[in-house]
Amino acid sequence: MRDVDIETAVPDAALPSGFRRWLAILVGLAAVSAAVMTWVGDVAGRREDKARVDASRAGLEVFRSVAATQSRQQFETDGVRRVAVAEGLGAVRVSEADVRDVTALQVALGLSVVDNETARRLIELGRATTTYPGDPQGVDDATIAALATTDQAAIDRVVARQSEHLEEADVQGTRQGRAILAVGLVAIAASLLGLAGLMGDGRGGRLSLRAAAAGLAAACAWGLSGFLV
Amino acid sequence: MRFGASAAPPTVPPVAAEQASTDLRVAVLLASAALIAAGVGVRAATLSDSGSDTWQTAIREEVRRDARLVSDVRRLYAEDAAVAYDIAELWIRAQEARREARASQGSVASVLRSEAAARAALAAALARTSSTLLDSPAEAPELDGAALLRRLAELRRAAGPAARLDPDATFAAGTDEAAKGSWLTATVVVVSLAFLCGALAAGMSAPPTPRRRLVAAGYGFAGLGLAAAIAVEVAL
């Protein structure tokens, strides 16, 4: 009886070299594409999160600055009003005094002098209370910054920065969404590659291989298109 | 398995043995790369999630800190400084009325002295009962920007932990975590090149030398990816 090796007796079941080579190349590219798209999605997602947090913090900065400045400005406005009241009172005392009553007129004149001097010193007081030393006297930086935001232009700059953060978040969100979809397409392509390997170099196998190649190309194109928005 | 009468040992062609050995190395390469990619991916995802959570914590801290900050500033200007200003104005009026009384005579001087006494008494009473900004009810108390800041610093210290929150530092910590996660994810791309090499080696039937080189390159990429991941983990 002739020796027969059962493992070599049947024809080689290996796929034809061309089909096998393309299958291997596409499998490798699928792995790389999945990794790259995952990375793109991760980076974009992180930047989107950061941009949204930056936008939220900018909103808080506006609230903090407006609220803190409002209290300060109200105090300063009250000071100016008191000066005006003191000055006005001094003038009204004299104009409304009974000129036929000499004593009353003298008292009104005396009080008017007091009012006017008080107004002058209140102006000095207002200047003193609105002049802050370079040394923050132990107040934390955030509070100083909030109190220092007194002009509308500064608020507008923060609002503009917030808008930029929100636009950045939208761009990164789109990029992340496309990368995630690309990873899904790579997964479908990988399934088709597995199917092609099972079917072999037949009509169905070649069709699966082509579909997988198209799926991979579409995945890469869609994932990278996020950088064009 | 062998059928037949002969007991002679089977002969394995050298090329087939070489191919079987390379196939085994490819399988080990792909399995190793998969394990590395999975491990690094899990760690990267954990770090990214942690970074995002830390950012949210920074927002919560900022909300708490700002609420207290605004409350303290309102307390300073709407209550403490306003009362101090009232007292200062009363003292100023009292001083000016006394000065004018000295320059006057008779009943006018009496009225002005009475005015000065009333204003001074009211100022002293207010200073005793209501002033938290002025240290003493002394005449002509110091009220200026420095005094306001000193009182604000007191209020901020009394605010406790809410005033000591540092959302900027928390935000920076979240950024560091997220960046580390992204760098780890990038190392998976390097590991994926090991997959590419392994797949190409698996798809190549002959000659054996390029296959061996591809497998070696695959192990190189896998090792490089792992080393990069470890470097990121240690250095960042």
Indicate the structural class of chain B: mainly alpha
- Rough outline of chain B: rod-shaped
Average of pLDDT of chain A? 89
The tally of beta strands of chain B, per DSSP, is 1
Please outline the major beta sheet of chain A. none
Total strand count of chain A, please? Answer: 1
Overall pLDDT level of chain B: 87
State the helicity of chain B in percent bands: over 70%
Largest interface: A-B, 74 and 87 residues
Total helical elements of chain B: 6
Terminal Cα span of chain A: 74 Å
> What is the CA-atom radius of gyration of chain B, in angstroms?
41 Å
Description:
The complex is a heterodimer of chains A (229) and B (236). The radius of gyration of chain A is 40 Å and the shape is rod-shaped. Helices cover 83% and strands 1% of the residues of chain A. Chain A is built from 6 helices and 1 strand; from the N terminus they run βαααααα. By secondary structure, chain B is mostly helical. Chain B has helices spanning 14-102, 106-129, 145-158, 161-164, 167-203, 208-235, and one strand at residues 2-3. In chain B, helix 5 (167-203) packs antiparallel against helix 6 (208-235). The longest helix of chain B is centred in the N-terminal third of the chain and has 89 residues, at 14-102. Chain B is rod-shaped, with a radius of gyration of 41 Å. The two termini of chain B are 56 Å apart. Chains A and B meet through strand 1, helix 2, helix 3 and helix 4 of A and strand 1, helix 1, helix 2, helix 3 and helix 5 of B. Strand 1 (4-5) of chain A pairs antiparallel with strand 1 of chain B, so a sheet runs across the interface.
